[in-house]
Amino acid sequence: MLSIDKETFKKDYRQKFIEIHGKDLDEGTDYNKYEALGSLVRDYVAKMWIDTNKKYKENSKKQVYYFSMEFLLGRLLGSNLLNLGIRDTCKAALDDLGIDLDKLENLEEDQGLGNGGLGRLAACFLDSMASLSIPGHGCGIRYKYGFFSQKIINDSQVEVPDDWLKRGNIWEIKKTDKARVVKFGGDVRVDYTDGNLKFNHTNYDAVLAVPYDMPIVGYKNNVVNTLRLWSAEPLSNEFDFSSFNRGDFKKAMEYRDSVESISQILYPDDSFYEGKVLRLKQQYFFVSAGLQSIIHHFKSAQGNMKELDEKIAVHINDTHPTLAIPELMRILIDEEGFGWDTSWRMTNNIMSYTNHTIMAEALEKWPIEMFKKLLPRIFMIVQEIDKRFCSELKNKYVGQWDKVRKMAIIDNGYIKMAHLAIVGSHSVNGVAKLHTEILKKQEMSDFYYCYPNKFNNKTNGITHRRWLISANPKLTMFLKEKIGDSFITHPTDMINFEKFAHNIEVQNRLRDIKLENKRKLADLIYKDKGINIDISSIFDVQIKRIHAYKRQTLNCLRIMDLYNRLIENPNLDIVPRTFIFAGKSAPGYYLAKDIITLINMVADKINNDDRVNKKIKVIFMENYRVSLAEVIIPAADVSEQISTTTKEASGTSNMKFMMNGAVTIATLDGANVEIRDEVGDENIVIFGLTEKQVLNLYKTGGYVSQNIINNDVRLKKIINSLVDGTYCKDKNKFKSIYENLVTYNDEFFVIKDFYSYLEAQEKIDRLYRDKSKWQRMCAVNIAHSGIFSSDRTIREYATGIWGSKCLYKNLE
Ligand code: 26V
C-alpha cells in the first residue's frame, strides 16, 4: 500500500504543479490544480502498474479479459485516491494549502462511455477485480463522444454531444507502439496447398486500432489492472496526406473520416436493436484489436499457444462482443495454423457470455448481406460454426426441422448473435436468479435443454467502495464506529450492524446522517433549478433510463392522482413527499421522451400550485450520470424499483439505494426478489403482479386495460387528464402515452398494477410516520446489503466461470 505523509504529499504536489504548469500554485486556476493532482496520482499509480504486470508475468496466472462495448466509469480522482489509501492525507495536505479537494474532484468530467446498467456493471467489475487482486482487464472502445448530455428545454429532453475529452484525460496513456491493424471488406481467396486450405484476404480496408490504457487501481493492495480502450486511426501508409496537389486529397480525407467515425460515438440506445453497419464495425474493430493484442502479449511472454485456453479467459458482456468467437477462430486457424476442432475446443474454453436482457427488441441480429460484405472471412467462419451446430442438432432432433431452424445461428437472412454467443461459449449466465430462470425456462429453453451445464446465475453486484465509502462518507464513518472497519474489505460483515437496528440512539444517528445527505441534495436542486424542497419530506426517488417497462409512467400517474386528491381535499393527511426523477431517453424513443415531458409538466403544475406544494413537489433532475447518482442515492428515503415483473433483468441501483439505507418499493422482478429474501417482507414494500401472473396474462391475453379504466372514475380522471389540457395546453402532447395505456392495451400492466401500487405507497406513508420503525428498516437494509457487493459477484465469476485465481488472496 502506498504510504505517504502529509508533508511529503504537499511537497510532491507543489513540485508537480510547477512541473506541468510552469507557474506557482497561487497563480493557478482550480482546473490547473485538478490537473496537477490527477497527474501526481497517476505518477503514484505508475510504479504499481508496472510491478503488477511484472508479477502477473512471473506468476503466469490466468488473465481475464472483460470485453464490453461500454464502461461507465464516472469520475476517477476520488476513487483512485480512496483505493490508493491516500484520500485523507491528500485532503489534509490540500486543506493546508487552502485548496478544497471536493471542489477539485467536481471539476473532473464524468467518463460516460456507457448507456446505463450494463456499462456501470462493467465499471464495478473492474474495481472488484483489481481489489480482489484478480488479473482481470477491460477491453472496449475509446469513444470520442460519450453518452450524450441531456438538457431539459421547454420541459423536454434535448441531446447535446458529450465532448468529454475536450480538456484531455489525465488517466489515459496512448500506446502507439501497441497499435494493431483491423481489416474490413475485401475478398477472401481460398487456396488448397499441401493438403491444407489457406484463406487469403485481399483488397480490404485497413484501420489502425490504437490503444489508450487506463489504470484500474485495487483497494489498498498495490494492484493496478488495465482498461484498454481502442481508438480508430487512419493507417499512415494507406494514403499520403501530404499529396495535396495529386488530386487524391479528397479521397484521403474521406478515408480518414470513415475510419475515425468508428470510434466517434457511443450508440445511445439500449433497448431497440437497429442493424447499423457502423455499430457492426465498432464491434469487430475492438474485438479484433483486443484479441490480436492479447495473443501478441501472450506469445511475447513465451506462452505456448497450445496452452492458450489455460492462460486466458475472455468474457463477452452481452452479445455486443460476440464476434470475439469467430475472430479467435480466425486467428487460431489462419494465423496460428491450428485445425478446426482444436481451435473450436480452445475458443469454447476461453469464451463466456452474460445475457443482460430478455427484451426481444434488444436482441442483435445482423443481416447476412451487410455482415458478409463487411467481414467476409468472419462470415465464412460463422457459416461453418452454424453448419456444424445444425448437423449436431439434426442428429439430436431427427426430423424436427422447425426446432433446428429455430435454434440455428443463421436463419431467414440474419445472423443471430445470442445463438452464436451461446454455442461458442462454455458458460452462459443471467444476472439475477429470476432472470436466469426465465432464460432457462423461456427465452433460451431450447439451448438450456441441449446444454444444461452451460447455464448458470451470477447475481449482479455494485462496488461498495464507490457507492458507500466514497459516496456516503458519513454513513461509512458511523458504521466503522459501530462495527469496526472489517466491512470495508469484507462487505458481508455489515450484517454486524443488524444488532443495532432497534437501538434508539443508532436510529437517531441514521436519521441525522440521512438529513445531512438530503440537505446536500436539496442545495444542489436549489442551485440547479431554484426550487426549495423540504428536507423533512420523504425523498422518493426513481433514477434510471426512461423506458416503458421501467414504468416511470406508473409513478407519474400516482403523483397525478395524489394531486387530484389534494385539490379535492386540502386537508388530506399525507406525509409530505418530494418526488425525484432523473434519467435519459434514447433520442429516437419518442414514447420515453414524452414521458420525460409529462413528468416535467406535472412538476411545473404541482410545484407552482400553492394549494398542494407544501405537501408535494416533483423534481426532474437534468443529465443523469454517475456523479449525480452519487449525490442522489445517499439522500433517498424511498427507492422506486417498479418495473413490470419479468422485464428488468436485475437492476443495480436497487442495491445502491439499499446500501445507503433507503426502503425499497418494488415489484418481485430482477434482483428485487433477492433483496426481499435478504431483508424479509417486513423491511421492503412489495406490490404488483407476480412472474406467474404476468406470464399467464401474456400467454392467455386475458387483459383489457380499457375495461379497468372505464369502470373506475378515479383512474378515468387521471387518464383523461393526459389529453384534456390539464398538464399541457396542447392536448395532443401526451396522446402517445394515453394511447399506449388505453388503445394499445398497456403492454406493461401500468393500469393493472395501479391500485396495488397505491396501497404500497400508503403503506410507505404509515411506516414512515413511525419514525423508529422506519429507521429500523433502514438499518436492516444497510446491514443486509453486503451480499450485493460486486466483490461477491466477481468471486463467483472467477471461481465458477473463468477458473482464475487471485494474486494475493484466496477466493474462498
Ligand atoms: C442493448 C442494446 C440493444 C441494441 C442497441 C444498443 C444496445 C446497447 C446496450 C444494450 C444493453 C441493454 C441491456 C442492459 O443494459 N441491461 C441491463 O443490464 C443491467 C446489468 O446487468 C441490469 O441490471 C438491468 O436490469 C438490465 O436492464
TrEMBL record:
It comes from Clostridium tyrobutyricum DIVETGP. PANTHER family: GLYCOGEN PHOSPHORYLASE (PTHR11468), GLYCOGEN PHOSPHORYLASE, LIVER FORM (PTHR11468:SF3). Its main location: cytoplasm. The lineage of its organism: Bacteria, Bacillati, Bacillota, Clostridia, Eubacteriales. One of its GO terms (cellular component) is cytoplasm. InterPro entries: Glycg_phsphrylas, Glyco_trans_35, Pyridoxal_P_attach_site. Its cofactor is pyridoxal 5'-phosphate. Belongs to the glycogen phosphorylase family. CDD domains: GT35_Glycogen_Phosphorylase. This is Alpha-1,4 glucan phosphorylase.
